[in-house]
Specification:
Elements lengths: L25 E2 L1 E4 L7 E10 L1 E2 L2 E2 L7 E10 L2 E8 L3 H9 L19 H8 L12 E5 L2 E5 L4 E5 L6 E6 L14 E2 L5 E8 L5 E8 L14 E7 L13 E2 L3 E6 L2 E3 L1 H11 L7 E3 L5 E7 L4 E9 L2 E12 L2 E10 L10 H4 L3 H10 L3 E9 L20 E4 L5 E4 L1 E4 L6 E6 L2 H4 L6 E8 L2 E9 L5 E4 L5 E2 L3 E4 L9 E8 L8 E7 L5 E7 L8 E5 L1
Parallel strand pairs: 21-26
Antiparallel strand pairs: 1-7, 2-36, 3-6, 3-37, 4-5, 6-7, 8-9, 9-10, 10-11, 12-13, 13-14, 14-15, 16-17, 17-20, 18-19, 20-21, 22-23, 23-24, 24-27, 25-26, 28-29, 29-30, 30-31, 32-34, 33-34, 34-35, 35-36
Length: about 525
C-alpha cells in the first residue's frame, strides 16, 4: 500500500483553492463503460471558498461548504456544484468579511463599528457556526448537510438548493453531534454528541432519530436520547468524530484529545478564540473504550483502557462469540492531528510538507477486541479467545481491562490509510473482510487503497500527480461476494491542460479502472459524502 510517488511540482496545492459554483450541470466526457445498473448521484461535501475578500481562512475545515453532485444515467454523466446558503456563508457574502468563527479562524467585530459597539459585540456570547462542509446524510425522506455543531442544513439532493437550517438543540440534549451517524436498514439514525449531565458535569449522549414516519411528519421531532456515557473529566469532553455500532451494541472511544470547555465559554468571547484554540491533550489519560446496549439503551459498566491515540474514523465493529471486535484508523499518541492541517501547512512546497508530516502522529490501522464476559478473579490473563486475532484484553488489579491491539496495517509517513469505507449496506456491524480507504502521502491524498482485514493483503490505485477523494462503495445488484461492486471517487489532476478533474469508477474487487467521467473544471478537496440511487 506504500506510495512510491513524490509530488515536487506541488499540484496538490490546487485542491486547497477557492472555486465558483456552477449555474447549471455540465456534461462530462466519459471513457470506458459505466455499468448499466449504476444510475444515481454521487453527493460530496467539502470546502469551496478559502477566503472572504482579503480575509483568509486558516484551517482546512474552515472553507465554506460546497456541495458537489455527479449524476449518472444511461452511461452519461453530468457534474454540478453549489455553495450551501448557511448563515455563515450568506452573512460573509453580504458583509464581505468573515462574520462567524470557524474551526481554526476567529471572526472579529465589524471594523466599521465604533469602539463601544465592537466591545459589546465581543460579549454577546458564542455564535456557533453552521458551516456544514463535512458530510451529508439522510433523515427520513430528506437529506442534511452537516458539520459537528448542533446545526444541520436540509438540502435538495437534486437541485442542491438550501432548504432550511435545523438546530438539534431544539429536540435533543446535545451541544453538537458527529458528522458520521449510523443508519439502520429501516432508516433509523443514531449519532453521538457531548452534553451536560448530572451536576453540570459533561457526558456523551447516544441519540436516536426514528425512520420515515407513515404520517409524513418530521422524524427529527421524535428524536430522543437513548443512552448516556459519563465523561472521564468533568469539564473537558473528548473530541468525537465517529463511533461504532454492532447489531446490539454501541462502541464509544474516549480519546485524550480534549475540549477545554471553560476556555471555550470564557476566552472565546473575550479574545476572539476559535475552536482549535480550545483543544488540549491529556498526556496521562490514555484511551478509554465504552460499551452500551442498543435495546434497551443501557451503559455497560466495564472499564476498558489502552495507550493514547487520536481517532477520527471507525472502520467497522461486530460481535463474535462473546466479544466485540473494533477496527479503527488510529494515530499514535495524544498530539492532536488537526494541528497539522492548517492550510499554511498543506499548501507548502513538497519538501516542507514532508517535514511537517514527519512530526505528526503516526497512523496505524488497529483491531481491538473487547470481552463481554469479565470476571475480576482472572487478573493477568488474556481474556480474548478468538483464534483469528492477536489482540489481547487483560484484567488489571484496579478492575480495568487493558487492551492491546492487533495491527492490521502500519506503514511509513508516506503511507497513511484514512477515510475508510466498507460495504456498509450489508456489513455494517457484522463480520466483514474488506475496507476501502484513501491513501495519504504526508497528508496529501494520492491513492485509493483496499485492505483485507483478515489476510492483511492490500491493493492500490494510483496515477502520477492525481489526487483522489474518499472512495465510496456501491454494491452491484446481483452481488454474491462482499466486494462485488464499484468504488466512486472524485480525482483531480491539476497538471493537465484539459479536463483536470474526473469521477473515477473502479472495480471494487481488484481496483482496476472501469470508467472515468472528466469535466473541464477544477474541483477542490472533498471530505465525505454518499451515493444516492
Amino acid at each position: 500500500m506504500v506510495s512510491r510517488l513524490e509530488h515536487p511540482a506541488g499540484g496538490y496545492k490546487k485542491i486547497f483553492e477557492s472555486c465558483e459554483e456552477l449555474a447549471e450541470p455540465i456534461p462530462a466526457h466519459v471513457s470506458g463503460n459505466i455499468p448499466v445498473w449504476l444510475t444515481g448521484s454521487l453527493l460530496r461535501m467539502g470546502p469551496g471558498l478559502f477566503e472572504i475578500g482579503d480575509e483568509p481562512f486558516y484551517h482546512l475545515f474552515d472553507g465554506q461548504a460546497l456541495m458537489h453532485k455527479f449524476d449518472l444515467k444511461d452511461g452519461h454523466v453530468t457534474y454540478y456544484r453549489r455553495f450551501i446558503r448557511t448563515d455563515a456563508y450568506v452573512r460573509a457574502m453580504t458583509e464581505k468579511r468573515i462574520v462567524i468563527t470557524e474551526f481554526g479562524t476567529a471572526a472579529y467585530p465589524d471594523p466599521c463599528k465604533n469602539i463601544f459597539s465592537r466591545f459589546f459585540t465581543y460579549f454577546q456570547g458564542i455564535e456557533v457556526t453552521d458551516n456544514c462542509l463535512v458530510n451529508i446524510y439522510p433523515i427520513g425522506e430528506d437529506f442534511y448537510a452537516c458539520t459537528e455543531t448542533n446545526y444541520i442544513t436540509k438540502v435538495d439532493p437534486d437541485t442542491l438548493e438550501t432548504i432550511k437550517k435545523v438546530d438539534l438543540c431544539n429536540y435533543l440534549s446535545v451541544n453538537g453531534v458527529t458528522a458520521h451517524p449510523h443508519t439502520e436498514p429501516d432508516g433509523t439514525v443514531y449519532n453521538i454528541g457531548n452534553c451536560f449531565g448530572k451536576n453540570m458535569s459533561l457526558a456523551y449522549n447516544i441519540v436516536k432519530i426514528p425512520p420515515p414516519q407513515e404520517d409524513k411528519s418530521d422524524p427529527i421531532e421524535k428524536s430522543k436520547v437513548l443512552v448516556q456515557f459519563p465523561s472521564s473529566e468533568r469539564f473537558k469532553p473528548s473530541y468525537i468524530h465517529s463511533f461504532g455500532m454492532t447489531e446490539n451494541y454501541f462502541v464509544f472511544v474516549e480519546t485524550p484529545v480534549k475540549i477545554n470547555l471553560l476556555k471555550f465559554l470564557t476566552s472565546w468571547s473575550i479574545r476572539g478564540t476559535n475552536y482549535m484554540d480550545c483543544f488540549e491533550s491529556n498526556d496521562k489519560m490514555g484511551t478509554w473504550f465504552h460499551l452500551a446496549t442498543k435495546n434497551p439503551g443501557e451503559n455497560i459498566d466495564h472499564k476498558f483502557r489502552t495507550s493514547a491515540f487520536n481517532l477520527f474514523h471507525h472502520i467497522n465493529c461486530y460481535e463474535d462469540q462473546g466479544f466485540i471486535v473494533v477496527d479503527l484508523c488510529t494515530w499514535k499518541g495524544h498530539d492532536f492531528v488537526y494541528n497539522y492541517l492548517y492550510l499554511a501547512n498543506v499548501r507548502q512546497n513538497w519538501e516542507e510538507v514532508k517535514k511537517a508530516a514527519i512530526r505528526a502522529p503516526q497512523p496505524e490501522v488497529r483491531r481491538y477486541v473487547l470481552p463481554l464476559d469479565i470476571h475480576r478473579e482472572e487478573q493477568g490473563k488474556n481474556l480474548v479467545s478468538l483464534p483469528y486475532t492477536t489482540a489481547t484484553a487483560v484484567m488489571c488489579s484496579d478492575g480495568t481491562v487493558w487492551l492491546e491491539p492487533e495491527v492490521l496495517f502500519s506503514g511509513p509517513h508516506q503511507d497513511k490509510y484514512s477515510f475508510p469505507q466498507i460495504n456498509y449496506k450489508k456489513y455494517c456491524g457484522k463480520n466483514y473482510t474488506f475496507a476501502y480507504g484513501l491513501g495519504l502521502n504526508h497528508f496529501v491524498p494520492d491513492r485509493i487503497c483496499k485492505l483485507n482485514v483478515k489476510s492483511k493483503e492490500t491493493w492500490i490505485w494510483q496515477e502520477p500527480d492525481a489526487y483522489p477523494s474518499e472512495p465510496l462503495f456501491v454494491q452491484s445488484p446481483d452481488a454474491k461476494d462482499e466486494d462485488d461492486g464499484v468504488l466512486l471517487s472524485i480525482v483531480v489532476k491539476p497538471g493537465v491542460t484539459q479536463r483536470p478533474a474526473f469521477l473515477l469508477i473502479l472495480n471494487a474487487t481488484d481496483l482496476t479502472e472501469i470508467a472515468r467521467a472528466e469535466v473541464d473544471v477544477m474541483i477542490p478537496v472533498t471530505l465525505h459524502g454518499l451515493y444516492k440511487p
